[in-house]
């Protein structure tokens, strides 16, 4: 697979798997406004998935739906962060925020891509993601600096999820090739924007990012055990009816 | 219809009551600050909140399939649809609030089981075809009732219905389109569609409420302009609209008595199993317990979230006061 296809799959897989987790909240969120917000973000993410998969459909000889529903867990290249389960609403919000804090500078950098299709995709998506982070940042601050219980839950979610940000920010040879071609932004500006965003927000939220292990693997298809169950649910209908159109 | 069997209040006999009725007869909209009989206010609160609760609980049977929608496009459309339903709940709670009741009070009534929601959502969604049936039949039946409510006598409710109806008609089309794709698909997909139709047809027919002869609550609500057509009128209209659609799809409606009546220029159809209807309303449907449990769990699990936001708001207010 070309470095470009690898990159597009990683972007699309992140959007799909986070969209899937987000969709699990439908009807179960703590207030009606959150039901609406999570469905709305899920919708944006599934839309982005279709665009990223569409970008590599020809090279891989697979339709966007084939990529979503007929690959196994070792073939998915999303980060470990997005597949983490909805342990509670604090985990869901923190996962979203950490993802947004990386997603925004990444897309922002991609708007300057030498590949016009990628730049156009990023231009469209970055508008959605600006809104996502406005919302997720605001809730991180209010709940971190809220009641003792909301603070503790947000801190617990941060403790659990922070190590997976290493997987979000990781780079490999495929990325280096694309950086050299001007196709994707270099690692440093994305990392700096992420560090600045999270440091500022966690200070306001009275939360502390933990030291300790840095967990990576998802981008190379080495997932947590949650991934198989997520895919089993998501892919069940198309796999029971191969060749069917829906 | 999302509001079913709403108990109607009584009209008074004072001059004020008569003037109020006169306004309604002249098609003048009632607005929140206008005087209104207590019975009118209470009936509307019951009707609007029941409709709102139905939108909220209605997220569950469809949400059951968001994670399993069989294509990216279907997943996106279903997310958009369910988001609309939650939005309808929000407008409707706001419309009810103009009558002097808070969203929290109404939520409490739903969670305790005191308030009702449409019994249709107590049926399970067992296959992907059920999502199609909910859009095509359940939303189709809801639109029958809601289109006339755009002209109902209470301003905020009628205006909410205008937006709700636009979105519901998109929902019905998406449901029909899911079913269309199934009947154009494999034998298994066709069988899935027919099976779902067999299970949803009669519950959809019963959404309009009991026959007019047994409907005790309608008369006063019709006088007040908050119910505009009888249950049987709407049911007939729904059947007349849906039979040709089912024929076009090549599906068979599970009613041996269904046939075109040339004299009436309408379809004759069989009698639903009203015992089942009342049994589900009483709480004995397959999912009554699960639906309420899910809503209670969401509310209880989310308490820390709501309290955390309140605590932050209080801190911010104190800081602002201290800064002044």
Kindly list the characteristics that best describe this protein:
heterodimer; A: 246 residues; Ferritin; 11 helices; B: mainly alpha; 2 strands; globular
Biggest sheet details of chain A: none
Strand content of chain A: under 5%
- C-alpha end-to-end distance of chain B: 52 Å
CATH second-level architecture of chain A: Up-down Bundle
Tell me the CATH architecture of chain B: Up-down Bundle
- Percent helix range of chain B: 55-70%
Protein name (chain A): Ring-1,2-phenylacetyl-CoA epoxidase subunit PaaC
Organism (chain A): Pseudooceanicola nitratireducens
GO cellular component, one term (chain A): cytosol
Protein name (chain B): Ring-1,2-phenylacetyl-CoA epoxidase subunit PaaA
Overview of this structure, please?
Chain A: This is Ring-1,2-phenylacetyl-CoA epoxidase subunit PaaC. Chain A: It holds the Pfam family PaaA_PaaC. Chain A: One of its GO terms (biological process) is phenylacetate catabolic process. Chain A: One of its GO terms (cellular component) is cytosol. The complex is a heterodimer of chains A (246) and B (324). Chain A has 246 residues and is an all-alpha fold. Chain A has one domain: Ferritin (Up-down Bundle), CATH 1.20.1260.10. Chain A is 70% helix and 0% strand. Chain A contains 11 helices and no strands. Chain A has helices spanning 3-23, 32-60, 64-69, 80-83, 89-110, 116-144, 148-161, 165-169, 173-180, 187-204, 226-240. In chain A, helix 2 packs antiparallel against helix 6 (116-144). The mean pLDDT of chain A is 97. Chain B is an all-alpha fold. Chain B is built from 13 helices and 2 strands; from the N terminus they run ααααααααααββααα. In chain B, 44% of the residues are buried. The model of chain B has no long low-confidence stretch (mean pLDDT 94). At the A-B interface, helix 1, helix 2, helix 3, helix 6 and helix 7 of A face helix 3, helix 4, helix 7, helix 12 and helix 13 of B.
